[in-house]
Specification:
Rossmann fold
Length: 397
């Protein structure tokens, strides 16, 4: 296989500082080998290199700087990441994970990015007995497969769309238009949205799908503008989120509610759209107000990655997944069956709050909606989890 490879014990003994470990001991200890494949190139990379891989690197660095990872309460061991570029290709992703878990016999694995890749990898990981804590898999179908070794951290489409529709109803929205990505992520969220809308009096004036890699949404948006809906819902990947937002601004389409995701919660979206992010809503579940630990994580991320911020949705879930994995190894060790059983039955402390799984699903975090207000992406729905109140969207600048 020809892939970009990173094999590292991050920082090693040099990072111990004041840690109570003799010089050189960390380097001498047998490392815990953790393998993964993730997109560094191709259309998945925009999400993977914001929401997932930076968190893997930061976590490994912090663990090794603290002396390593304690295994079942025993001596600390360094973590070594063994990683590959899956090139945004499902076949490459599956082949690489097969090698990591098969001939390479890594101790643990970390998940790839996105619903489609996780849908392909989860049955393989389950068959080979590797726990998989996935922070970017939005798929009720995957949850319903009841794979014992698969754990999904993100809120699923039914929960996210229920929260969105609840918010729209509470704010007297009468008409909406929907565009959605024609893949697993888009289709499942679109179906969940339609199911929730059936319970309301909201009229859908337009439904349009589009293919991966779309370059122009202006004709669709012009048609929707003529229908003058109260709300626009875009179930979109990061490049399409930016495309839809830019082109809506260019043609003067400015509904009362403009929802687009995934990507709205990214710093990149703010950098590109600048003042035109104000009032835009999308998928998000946390920010620095969520917990003191969330603030500490946010600051550490910015420091390591030259001011780059974690996104306010899946990055938090990715970090929570690493926290869960660390706590589980510390309690149950590296026996993967024992590790799986511990994850399945335990409530874990994370930056998002307590997390416990019901089967494969995160049962603790409700569906949420976020909104750009000033320089932060606030949680605005449901009110019980909100970090700020929903604000009217101003006109595009």
């Amino acid at each position: 296989m020809r892939h970009t490879t990173r094999r590292t014990i991050l920082q090693g003994a040099a990072a111990l500082g004041a840690a109570s470990v003799a010089p050189g001991l960390l380097a001498q200890a047998k490392p815990i080998r953790i393998g993964y494949a993730i997109a560094r190139t191709g259309p998945w990379a925009a999400g993977a290199q914001v929401s997932q891989e930076p968190n893997y690197l930061l976590w490994a660095e912090q663990v090794n700087a603290a002396g390593g990872l304690s295994v079942k309460g025993g001596a600390k061991r360094p973590v070594a990441l063994e990683s590959y570029d899956d090139r945004s290709d499902t076949e490459t992703c599956v082949r690489t994970f097969s090698k990591l878990m098969g001939s390479d016999k890594v101790d643990l694995i970390l998940p790839p990015w996105g619903s489609g890749a996780n849908f392909a990898i989860a049955p393989l990981a389950n068959r080979m007995g590797y726990p998989l804590l996935a922070p970017t898999a939005l798929s009720r179908k995957l949850i319903d497969m009841n794979l014992p070794y698969f754990f999904s951290l993100l809120q699923q489409p039914d929960k996210m769309m229920s929260a969105l529709v609840d918010m729209l109803v509470a704010n007297n929205v009468k008409t909406i238009a929907i565009v959605y990505m024609d893949d697993l992520f888009g289709l499942e969220n679109f179906a969940a949205l339609n199911n929730e809308l059936k319970k309301t009096q909201i009229q859908v004036v337009e439904r349009k799908s589009y293919p991966l890699g779309v370059k122009d949404l202006a004709p669709v948006l012009r048609g929707i503008k003529d229908l003058n809906p109260d709300a626009f819902i875009g179930i979109t990947y990061p490049p399409d989120t930016i495309l839809a937002s830019r082109q809506a601004r260019e043609i003067g389409f400015n509904p009362k509610f403009f929802y687009a995701s995934v990507g709205t919660a990214f710093q990149l979206y703010k950098n590109v759209m600048q003042a035109n992010t104000e009032g835009v809503i999308g998928m998000g579940s946390w920010n620095v107000k969520t917990s003191p630990e969330a603030r500490a994580y946010f600051d550490a991320h910015k420091k390591k990655f030259d001011g780059k911020e974690p996104d306010r949705w899946a990055s938090g879930h990715a970090w929570a997944g690493m926290q869960i994995l660390q706590q589980a190894v510390e309690s149950a060790g590296l026996d993967r069956k024992a590790l799986r059983d511990h994850i399945a039955k335990t409530e874990f402390k994370t930056i998002l709050g307590p997390i416990k799984f019901a089967g494969s699903e995160n049962a603790s975090i409700p569906g949420t909606v976020g909104q750009w207000q000033g320089n932060d992406f606030e949680v605005v729905w449901p009110p019980a989890r909100a970090t700020a109140k929903l604000q009217p969207k101003p006109a595009w600048k």
